[in-house]
Amino acid sequence: MKIELASSYGFCYGVKRAIEIAEEHKDSFTYGPLIHNTDEINRLKDGYNIGLIEKFEEIENDSTVVIRTHGIPKDELTHLKKQKNKIIDATCPYVTTPQNIVEKMSTEGYSIVIFGDKEHPEIKGVVSYATKQNDAFIVLDPKELATLPLKSKVAVVSQTTKKPEDFAKVVSALIKTHKEVRVFNTICNATFENQDAASELAKKADVMIVIGGKHSSNTKMLHSISQQDCPDSYLIENETELDAHWFKNKQLCGISAGASTPDWIVQNVISKIEKIS
User: Can you tell me which residues bind dimethylallyl diphosphate (predicted)?
Assistant: First the structure.
């Protein structure tokens, strides 16, 4: 069986940057998982003594705190600074952009529409930058817009890992009903490239392996896209989850990986597939 990697996969700029920042600050901790990849977080813990705190109230004064790639709510960041903590900001610049846009457009009197998952840490951070919290709304479906008390002026941004065609549907619905719609394309280019590459590979593969965290939005999207053209597509976090039955009578195995998946995990998966296929 032949194994082929997608032409674009794995670590994006923001994740690479965050890992490098974390490695430069040994004996610190991150507030929330730095990235959505448990194996990489464990590597940082074992090799660099970088801990993890999940609950904000557990952060002590005068600590060195690394801010996760997805960012954190504005009020929490402000509070950490008041506690005299040393703040190491590893927020992805592509996430900082919608934060700044939401803050600016909210200040200028626009209603804010954010296309994304309301429970995702990135979106929790982005919405917090609206100066008027009761005038910022998170939607996943254009149908939700009809129930919102939006002003005539609306600014719209997207979660960085969403599909452009889905974002366009929300934008189209807003344009039909509002006099002024300011559209900011905040979807990450790396997301486009990885998704397109996975789609192209899935069209010719008869089994697809997508590697990444089970809670990673962009990885789950890669898996969904792969399934459209290759029904035998599987999402795994590492090589231990591989099943030999997946590769029986298969000719081409395609491999893609989420933006938080380090290359060493990808190589471990390839080695395991070569042994069992």
Answer: 36, 70, 120, 216-218, 260
